[in-house]
Amino acid sequence: MPAPRPLPDSLSRTFSVPQALEAGVGRGRLRRADLETPFHGVRARPTSFDLDGLDPYTRQLTERRIQAWN
Fold first, then answer.
1. How many distinct structural domains can be found in the chain?
2. 48 by DSSP, 3-state: which?
3. How does pLDDT run across 2-48, given as a tens digit for each residue?
4. Strand pairing partners for 44?
């Protein structure tokens, strides 16, 4: 499968489906696996976390929260 098209810069990290459609993003692009769906009608760009600098307890807690989010 080819790489997904980049999203317009006008969209923030989290955006609604109507905002994306208004910005010219197609419905198929909004269904791609690289976007998170925190709520119905809402999409989010993927979040990257740097866990290397955390103490072991905080790192494990953060990893579990990330897994629960996905």
1. 1
2. coil
3. 888 899 999 999 999 999 999 999 999 999 988 999 899 999 987 76
4. 14, 36
Q: CB neighbours of 13 closer than 8 A, spacing ≥ 6? A: 44, 45, 47
Residue 5 lies in a domain: no
**pTM for this structure?**
0.65
Backbone conformation region of residue 23, classed left if phi is above 0, alpha if psi is from -120 to 50, else beta: alpha
The answer to whether residues 14 and 42 touch, using CB atoms and an 8 Å cutoff, is yes
Structural domain range at position 45:
14-69
Give domain status of residue 48, yes or no. Answer: yes
Residue 30's identity, in one-letter code, is: L
- Going by their DSSP bridges, the two strands 42-44 and 14-16 should be labelled as antiparallel
- Who wins on pLDDT, 54 or 20? 20
